[in-house]
Amino acid sequence: MLELKGIKKTYLLGNSVWGKRKTVEAVKNVSLTLEERVCLGLVGKSGSGKSTLGKIILGLEKPDQGEVWFQGKNLSNLKAKELKELRRNLQVVFQDCYSSVNPRLTIGEIIAEPLRNYERLTSVQEKKKVQELLEIVGLCTEDIHKYPYQFSGGQLQRINIARAIALKPKLIIFDEAVSALDVLVQVQILNLLAQLKEEFHLSYLFISHDLQAVNYIADRLAVMYNGEIVEWLDDMEQLERLEHPVSKKLLSSVLLPYPGHGSDTKMIY
Amino acid sequence: MGQQPILTVNNLNIDVSTPYGVTRTVRDVSFKIEAGKVFGLVGESGSGKTMTCMSLLNLLPDEAKVVKGSIQFRNKDILNYSEEDMRKVRGSEIATIMQNPMTAFNPVRTIGRHFIETLRTHLPITKHQAREMAVAYLEKMDLPYPKNLLKQYPFQLSGGMLQRVMIAITMSLNPSILIADEPTTALDATNQLQILKQLNWLRKEYDTGILLVSHDLGVIAQLADEVAVMYGGYIVEKAPVFKLFNRPMHPYTRVLLESRIGLTRRKTKIVKHISVPPPNLINRENTCPFLERCEDADHTCSSYNLELKEYEKDHLVRCLKSR
Amino acid sequence: MKNVKRKLLSHKLMMISSMIIFIMTLLALFPPFLAPNDPNLIDITHKLQGSSSKFPLGTDHLGRCILSRLIYGTRTSLGTAFLVMGLTMMISIPLGIYAGFRGGWVDYLFMRMCDILMAFPSLLLSLALIGILGPGLGNLILAMVLVHWVFYARVIRGMVLSVKEQNFILAAKVCGTPRLVIVIKHILPAIISQVVVLVFMDIGGVVLAISSFSFLGFGIQPPGAEWGMMINDSKPFFRNAPSLMLYPGMMILIVVVAFNLFGEALRDALDLRRE
């Protein structure tokens, strides 16, 4: 459903007029495919190019090289109208739930934004639809008139999810979507995501540095390091089989929530 | 045990005034920190963890006030200290590392300048001596090329590196207590372990008592000797780490432990996902803060006066229904 | 405690300055009803008189009522200042938002143009423009707008840049919101309060600039009443009748200070709300 072919993205650093500018290769030659109804976990340290890759797929950044194919079409040579129609199937949830919503709008307006862009609904229909969405993500229908500051981080992330599923997309990209939340809330959101995936036949690209969360929700795993995908894992049951040193390091640095695992005795010092 | 605790918090109560009323942010919190031990404080955001930390440094914001209780540091009550006395204690005796290391540094000053200035405000040494000391401590923290590091600016380092520099600066003054408020939350998984290892080394090498605050059970399980679970301003359960994880008694602790994912795969069972907002602490009565979310609660709970009871040796729980 | 004190102080300043501005606005809007005499009626027999019941603040060298001229001058000064600011914003806001939001080479070109225009002192540039266009109120307004819009457009571009990278703008793009709608619904509301503060903080400066140009004889032409021109007119009589120069000077001072204080109080109030 989604296919990346040789994606490359270089950023310029500073603007020196004299001589060569410094560059950073955020993504070097990444190719990947994502089938329908699959959750692909993309793990890596910060600065490994995961988020840039996500932005390229969303069309927020243009790749220097390579192609993004979505639902059998190359996104870079589509007409604006076709592109817009295709993009409705591609949504996103960011890490920072507070800055992802406009603080001046009500929850109703926030969730209705994608609907207004693609569907011609009367205000009654729109309200009904927004209330349905609120119920799906586990919030009250009365919340429709409230403002973002009246909600906690976990609740705001639910609102962001409601906005992302409003158009019934095919693929949602989660860019560290649970990393900033409390553990308990993280699990609730992950469960919600798993449930939505079944219910609406969604595909996810789940970007995170946290192997625990990725392992919990993903069907497949890609490990990214320095702008490249260094290892693939098709079966999450075989996590111990990861071979690349980067993957091994990620695996070994998971903080297991059980005392005695790696504490005092096992800690190197 | 048997050791004299360095820091003892007794019956701490903190109120915060907001435009909507008075929030009972911290209620009846008591704990001790001993030399070379790590005391873990777990809880969700808004449970009063951070306010407790701030009060230990006498750094509460204007709106917050300690209404009851005492904080004994080496048998003297910190709350009675003057601003001048407190400044001497802060940093050299009680040190902190914060969640976001980026905001702790001034972006236009080099690491070296931060380090040397901190050393020289607390110790009577020359610039040269301070520089040598800085290099030595950065080396102890396993930071590569310490001499170059001193010339760099905060933005040139990663979050994990900065946090380690922060720890190095803190430790150079050899404090007896270190308050680590979510020290790993803003960091990548690979850096988290590194920081925890360093904290562990510190308490062994320097016998520093550490107050480790986190919402992440993984962090607590790795390092803490004794754990207190905070909810809605109260410590709802307090026990040595193995006891707490093996035999949780408070319903909230149980929910928390059940939500651990670790590296197990998601089970098919899906927990009901109605989102429950954190308890409203404004003008709240002395009832159980977990009442609304508790599965075990019944009519007796609402009339029950909260008390922390010792169910086993060293295992304290604040619940009527604890089993 | 400090907070409370600051709030109160800012409140008091806000009250005083907004009262002054309110009175000034009244003076500017209804001079025919408020002025005791015709401001342009020349009566040499009554020249340079002290205050009397007919002329509360006396008369000038041509026997015109000073109070009336001051009141009519309010209309010229404030009216012109707001006109200049309004026209400037009409250029600056769209251009600043366009450059900031569009980014890329458009932004680069815009910034270089700003650099060039801002390399000259604005007063000098305005003077040169008036020199080309010729004196007169219309040309003065034109020259000031042409010189000042660059500065504001640049500031607004900066505001847009800081809002543009917020996640909710990205989210809006992803869910298909057209660019114009993003600008109107998300970006404009986020910066408009800052722009309003900027306008009020600077309008005093514009009043001052207009008076300076009129003092130099480039602004409104006689017999129209304007504070800067009144000061210029009274120069030869400074020794005998210093009040002639004092009154319009006081008016300029009060207006400029009132607007500055109002702007600052406004900024504080908005900051507090953000906390």
UniProtKB/TrEMBL annotation, chain B:
<dbReference type="Pfam" id="PF00005">
    <property type="entry name" value="ABC_tran"/>
</dbReference>
<dbReference type="InterPro" id="IPR027417">
    <property type="entry name" value="P-loop_NTPase"/>
</dbReference>
<feature type="domain" description="ABC transporter">
    <location>
        <begin position="9"/>
        <end position="257"/>
    </location>
</feature>
<keyword id="KW-0067">ATP-binding</keyword>
<keyword id="KW-0472">Membrane</keyword>
<dbReference type="GO" id="GO:0015833">
    <property type="term" value="P:peptide transport"/>
</dbReference>
<dbReference type="GO" id="GO:0005524">
    <property type="term" value="F:ATP binding"/>
</dbReference>
<dbReference type="InterPro" id="IPR003593">
    <property type="entry name" value="AAA+_ATPase"/>
</dbReference>
<dbReference type="InterPro" id="IPR017871">
    <property type="entry name" value="ABC_transporter-like_CS"/>
</dbReference>
<dbReference type="Pfam" id="PF08352">
    <property type="entry name" value="oligo_HPY"/>
</dbReference>
<dbReference type="InterPro" id="IPR013563">
    <property type="entry name" value="Oligopep_ABC_C"/>
</dbReference>
<keyword id="KW-0547">Nucleotide-binding</keyword>
<protein>
    <submittedName>
        <fullName>Nickel import ATP-binding protein NikD</fullName>
    </submittedName>
</protein>
<keyword id="KW-0813">Transport</keyword>
<keyword id="KW-1003">Cell membrane</keyword>
<comment type="similarity">
    <text>Belongs to the ABC transporter superfamily.</text>
</comment>
<dbReference type="GO" id="GO:0016887">
    <property type="term" value="F:ATP hydrolysis activity"/>
</dbReference>
<dbReference type="InterPro" id="IPR050388">
    <property type="entry name" value="ABC_Ni/Peptide_Import"/>
</dbReference>
<dbReference type="GO" id="GO:0005886">
    <property type="term" value="C:plasma membrane"/>
</dbReference>
<dbReference type="InterPro" id="IPR003439">
    <property type="entry name" value="ABC_transporter-like_ATP-bd"/>
</dbReference>
